[in-house]
Amino acid sequence: MMRIIMDFKTLLLDERDDGIAILTLNRPEKLNAINMQMIDDFNAAMDHLYHSFDTRVVILTGANRTDGSPVFSAGLDLKEAAILDQKSPPEGSPDYLRFPDYSKRFFHFQKELSNTVRKIRAIPQPVIAAIRGPAVGWGFAIASASDIRVAGRSAKFINAFIKIGAGGADCGSSYYLPRLIGLSRATEIIMTGRDVTAEEMERYGYLARLVDDGAVMDAAMVIAHSLLEKSPLGLKLTKEALAINADAPGLEPALALEDRNQNIASQAKDSKEGAYAFFEKRPPKYGKR
Q1: Does CATH place domain 4-228 in 3.90.226.10?
Q2: Neighbour order of strands in the sheet with 156-158
Q3: In Å, how far from its chain's centre is CA 52?
Q4: In whole angstroms, what separates CA 51 from the centre of its chain?
């Protein structure tokens, strides 16, 4: 497989030969804030990755500001979102902006925005969020929706939705954050919208690694390469089980899903390769698929 670099208008997707893809939020002049174009690009990138079978792990990060300082994402681009109020949208705007009343326009906009969270959970690859600088609003939400989080000491997490006259629960924040750090802590962060430091989030168990800013991508790569050592099918089934069993009503349905997944995984050649490699005390050779 040749290395593939897809340059969206607001994202950069680098699918490397080793099975790791790096997806970079790339609006540095706007602090990587999400606008309508980024919504479209992000959802398109997720659709592409869903069928990108040679890509086994995704690292999600943000481009540095134009002055070189770090930022993950400043959340929603409020200036551009103001066009939802305009009855005559600019040329090239999404078709839903042509609905005659605001409530319908915003309904479809909100669905497209929340689809970014749905799709990051739907892709089979584990997603590692590599966070430096602020992760605000949608940026905080998409980090929470990732499977693993690595952050630099400059990272800070801000649930900004509550600060702009809207509800504090948006883009899955009220779903993922309580599951990651507990309801009491999540409630305080979501309702106050205060800045939360990387050190505090590490104490809460939100982060898998907290490192110096210059080591964030290296730390994410170490985790990514450790995942590449696992069975491709086994890793996909593990992500599925973790996602579904977070809401399992009890032990029995959780065990049933795990049993089903183990039955599927054990039929793949990777299962035998893993067993042979274990007993022969060598790294398994799974291949990319």
Answers
A1: yes
A2: 134-136, 156-158, 195-197
A3: 16
A4: 17
